[in-house]
Design goal:
Blueprint: E1 2-6, E2 9-15, H1 21-34, H2 43-47, H3 51-57, E3 64-70, E4 76-84, E5 93-101, H4 110-124, E6 129-135, H5 139-147, E7 151-162, E8 165-175
Parallel strand pairs: 5-6
Antiparallel strand pairs: 1-2, 2-3, 3-4, 4-5, 6-8, 7-8
């Protein structure tokens, strides 16, 4: 757990737990609905997920973890996940996933603090390479990832299709 001092008070970065489930679901659904171009998951599909799906997602394992940022009022305001590859020969790789910061809390560099928590988790789990993908239109996120040490290594063309538009994604990586 890390505490960040901001102009808006103390913000806590910590592992999510099952007790965060309702707030996490609400934040995840907001992210998917408001920014469909930023996520491979679909809002309508997420609405139909059973409670067990969310409980499993919020339970840290040797292969994944979800970190959240918590406001001074104890509300979830941002999230980021890390998911380690499971194969024996590729388990030294992991992906950063589900990055979202509530619009009211943007500009505080919460993404970078959440990524730092994921980096610490990755080091504890002997991860050597972190990867992520980001819509080429999401310049604020691209800048945050670059500040966190990620570099572009490719472009995946037309990977997301939503509202009649195809979106390319930058593929970025960071060696630990």
């Amino acid at each position: 757990m890390t505490t960040i001092q901001s102009a808006r008070g103390s913000i806590t970065i910590r592992l999510a737990t099952v007790s965060d489930m309702q707030a996490f679901i609400a934040m995840r659904l907001k992210a998917l609905k408001d920014h469909p171009e930023a996520f491979g998951s679909d809002y309508e599909d997420a609405l139909t997920r059973p409670e067990e799906f969310w409980q499993q997602r919020l339970t840290e394992t040797d292969h994944n973890a979800i970190y959240v940022a918590v406001s001074p009022e104890a509300e979830l305001i941002a999230m980021t996940g890390i998911s380690r590859y499971e194969g024996k020969k590729i388990q030294h790789n992991a992906n950063i996933v589900s990055v979202y910061v509530d619009p009211a809390w943007r500009g505080l560099r919460l993404t970078e603090h959440l990524i730092a928590a994921c980096v610490a988790w990755a080091r504890q789990h002997d991860i050597r390479i972190l990867r992520l993908s980001v819509a080429v239109t999401n310049t604020a996120a691209i800048r945050a990832y670059a500040r966190s040490g990620f570099v572009v290594y490719g472009i995946e063309q037309e990977v997301i299709f939503t509202d009649g538009i195809y979106y390319d994604e930058l593929m970025m990586a960071r060696r630990l």
